[in-house]
Write a structure and sequence with these properties.
- The chain has 166 residues and is α/β, with parallel strands linked by helices.
- It folds into two domains: 1-97 and 146-166, Rossmann fold, CATH 3.40.50; 100-143, no CATH class.
- Helices cover 39% and strands 13% of the residues.
- It has helices spanning 20-28, 41-51, 60-63, 79-90, 114-117, 123-128, 146-164, and strands at 13-15, 33-34, 54-57, 71-73, 109-112, 132-135, 141-142.
- The strands form two sheets. A four-stranded parallel sheet has the order 2-1-3-4, with helices on both faces.
- Helix 1 (20-28) crosses helix 4.
- The chain is globular and about 55 Å long.
Amino acid sequence: MDTKLESGNAPRFAVDEMMGKLARWMRLMGLDVEHRRPFPDNELMEIARREGRVLITRDRKLARNKPPPEVWLIEEDLAFHQLVEVVRHARIDPMEKAFTRCGVCNTPLVDISKEEAAGRVPPFVYATQTDYRLCQRCERIYWPGSHRERMEKLFGEVAKTAIEKQ
């Protein structure tokens, strides 16, 4: 049994519409995840095939669909355990690319200066933070606040659990 998760290139994913929490957490881990609501099965399959994405679903009927794409059937109900399944199956380190994508729209984030964040973040955040990232698509700004510490802890727990289940 391996005692650590690998780094490197993770696959790209298309996540079934019923798994929105999982898609958001995967994006926050820096994974490229196509997900939307609504996301009809035929459109989900077509995007996965066309773009070479791994399809993630809890729908057994959809998982049996042939020809490919590669499909990962997730058995777990809770987002934490779903995330463990993905990390274990993809053999990835959840922190390697964490916080590099927008959790809402999947766009890679770009660093911006504190001055560029002025007037676009709450005053307390501006007074206490120096590092900012911008989603150029939806204009959201991210910074490493206390919520990030909680997410890092969660990603550590995901990695530990994934290793234990190998």
